[in-house]
Write a structure and sequence with these properties.
Radius of gyration: 18 Å
Largest sheet: 2 strands, antiparallel
Order of helices and strands: HEEEEHHHHEEHEEHH
Strand content: 5-15%
Helix content: 40-55%
Number of helices: 8
């Protein structure tokens, strides 16, 4: 449910032309719901929100003045939050934020910072092993998709087809959101009970 809320938040700001550049567990808050149910992660009066836009980038302004990599290089990422494209020196954009979503999911699943590397097939993987009683297909899809995005196809100034390296696009996020929505469907009462229990723990009741 939290991962679903994070995916929705990131998709929303990307559709508005904004990169957050500091997506991590510390920058999500749970507040009383105030929008249509399901629109950005609301459940039983609770809403997942993304905060702290101090490092954010207005993509429309950037693209009017040059490429995002040319203007920011590797300085846009918070410490230890470089996505694979940035690590390899490839073009990057939305994957800076979607790597942050993975870092949040990693903390929720394993309680530790995300670390990853390439497997024998050259694909990026998280270092931790998924536990057998989790929905391994769902979580594997999330990590594999967002760690291995190859960007979008575009054309350069000479009308040549090139990989513009825009990272994890909206279609990837929408597909993953759909999968996570299916996962939580029918579990409303269970989720609501967990949220109430969490609230009681936080408030010391």
């Amino acid at each position: 449910w939290y991962t679903l809320g994070a995916l929705r938040c990131v998709l929303g700001i990307h559709e508005a032309g904004v990169l957050h550049c500091d997506v991590k567990s510390d920058n999500f808050v749970l507040t009383p719901g105030s929008v249509l149910e399901g629109e950005t992660g609301e459940h039983d009066g609770a809403l997942v929100k993304l905060i702290d836009f101090g490092r954010s980038i207005d993509l429309r302004a950037v693209e009017a003045g040059g490429t995002i990599v040319g203007l920011f290089g590797d300085d846009a990422a918070a410490e230890d939050m470089d996505p694979p494209a940035m690590t390899e020196g490839r073009p990057w954009k939305e994957d800076l934020d979607t790597y942050g979503v993975l870092s949040v999911a990693h903390v929720l699943l394993w309680g530790s910072h995300l670390s990853c590397g390439k497997d024998v097939k050259g694909r990026w993987r998280q270092d931790k092993t998924l536990r057998r009683y989790w929905n391994k297909d769902l979580w594997s899809d999330l990590f594999d998709t967002l760690l291995n995005s190859q960007g979008e196809e575009g054309e350069d100034a000479d009308d040549e087809c090139v990989n513009v390296g825009f990272g994890s696009g909206a279609d990837d996020l929408r597909r993953l959101i759909g999968r996570f929505e299916q996962e939580v469907e029918g579990k409303e009462n269970e989720i609501a009970a967990m949220l109430r229990r969490q609230n009681n723990l936080v408030s010391g009741r």
